[in-house]
Design a protein that fits this description.
2 helices, mainly beta, single chain, Methylamine Dehydrogenase, Chain H, four-stranded antiparallel sheet
Length: about 350
Amino acid sequence: MIQPDNWETLQAFLYLQAARGVTAAPTADYDSIGVPANPNKWLGGVLAPNGKIYAIPCNRPNVLIIDPATDTADVDTITDLGGLGTKWIGGVLAPNGKIYGIPFNDDHVLIIDPATDTADIASISVSGDLGKWQGGVLAPNGKIYGIPCDAESVLVIDPATGTTDTSITVPAGAQKWHGGVLAPNGKIYGIPWSYDHVLVIDPATGTADYTSIAVPGDGNKWVGGVLAPNGKIYGIPRSAGSVLIIDPVAGTADWTTISDATLSGTDMWSAGALSPDGRIYGMPRNATSVLIIDPATNTVDTTTITVGDPSTPKWVGGVLALNGRIYGIPRDASSVLVIDPKAAGAFTASVALCGYFNKF
């Protein structure tokens, strides 16, 4: 599915579903699926082949398992994963059906097996340094690439061998990139959090480019990105005040086209998900609304879906389930955010599970 040669077919499918539009205005529910009320609980989630969503534990000792078929949450099945410490941020579904959590402060990769509902935090060790990587991306070669935050290298996880490689180096510095996206050209684009260039990883050559695509040098800009049907990558604004548009074909970045007063603020949204109707839904961290980006018109909507308290970091990362709804992963919120885009079209399981979309 994620081989570059397959993009033309996949793109046609995405456009077909988007053309079917919506049946009504989108809605959201943030009351029905309750979770414990601790802070900094889970950061990012991944859809598994069994249709359930597995949220990656940050300061929690357990994986959050969301069942979209019943709209229930389970925090009791996969437990004993350590205590506080911002352990892992984001995860990726590997070809072997397992989910790999990306180590931020932890010294091991988290491996979740949805087939058995078990977790392994001992098999793949990494450096014990703090603030290492945030989010990961599956490449066409079957390996997972962890996006460097403070680390001076890309983390390459090989699920087939259970090994890691950190030979792709990047400059020193804190809070460089936060999350990444696989583009149709087979390269991975790291979203600039505080760094002044987009990170471009080429899995085919095992190299990284961090000088070609410049962006403003401000801190805390964008967190996470989403691939749109047009083949461009949309970076979700945390404090940038604009949406980042990366064009992998042109090798350019645009942060002025979608720049609206309603996007201004601090720690507004964090990561997002593509709906079958072609729109991107940004998850409200401290914002009081869901961010809806329409790549077809390069416009945004921050008024249709309003949510909760602006002083609380609510949700980080969103996952499209097979029922067509998007599930926001609770950071500090005491419930899962459930967005119904009301899309008339639908993604097949193979599309929803593929590496273009199913990661953070």
